[in-house]
Amino acid sequence: MVDLKASAEAAGPEPAHEPRGSLWHDAWLELRGRVLFWVAAAILLVACAMAAFPSLFARLGPHENCNLRMSKKGPGGGALFGYDLQGCDYWSQMVHGTRASVLIGLSVTLFSLLIAVLLGLLAGYYGGVLDAVLSRVTDVFFGIPFVLGATVILVAFPGHGIWAMTLVLVLLGWTTMTRLMRGQVIAVRDTDYVMAARALGAGHARIMFRHILPNSIAPVFVVAMLNVGNVISGEATLDYLGVGLQYPDVSWGLQLNVAQSFFAEYPHLLVFPALFLTATVLSFLLLGDVVRDALDPKLR
Fold first, then answer.
1. Is residue 181 part of a domain?
2. What are the pLDDT digits (tens) for 237-251?
3. What is the CATH number of the domain that holds 109?
4. Three-state SS across 64-117?
5. Residue 4: inside a domain
6. Residue 215 CB coordination number (10 Å)
7. pTM here?
8. Which residues in the chain show pLDDT less than 50?
9. Residues of the domain holding 111
């Protein structure tokens, strides 16, 4: 007779079966092998560092040591990116202009995401009259064109700064994520684990924030990442049109506004802020795309 115990010992211990990871853990395992993720993350890390600590990247402030004799001179002569119309170092202008764009993009998206999560949870979970009212309010704001609506409001209230622009863009930018959040909640609220939690006596708040929210937030989070790039583009557009930030504030959109009349003779005035803006917006969009692919098991 074969000694089964001895055979088992000779074969060695059975391989341990690792528990299945969470959705976010599996997404991270997928993301860390993608080159696009690391490229986009590196660019955004530099952009955020410039916004938070501009003095680490530029030796001068945005309006320091300006010399009109150097006005509009191109790269060279001690200035990496040349000089602007006032003879200020253009590299320093680029670095300090990062703060307004990145801060507005992240702030608007964060506040819009919070509004979307709250309203989407309430509308999708309770339904009925509350859902109808919130949905109609969302439709009204959704029907207002983003740039046109912001232009009308900002023209009506001149003298605004970064936080006033943030408030206006939040007012007009929460609708898409709210609709998506509501749809996700409706899809999740009648699943077996939610019904089981309700049968065990869990309260509404616990069900919404412990069971429904973690299982419905992923698509909304991806849209939020994509939204940062869209908000930065919208902020730059408003600055370019002359209804956004005003001097002495510094932003890429303002620099594009000033440079449009001098592009033929002094192309560096338009090329450099356009490159900074394009790289930042494109990085947010690429990061959102790769995160979306990683969070969707069907695309792996």
1. yes
2. 999 988 888 888 889
3. 1.10.3720.10
4. CCCCHHHCCCCCECCECCCECCCCCEHHHHHHHHHHHHHHHHHHHHHHHHHHHH
5. no
6. 15
7. 0.84
8. 1-19
9. 45-299
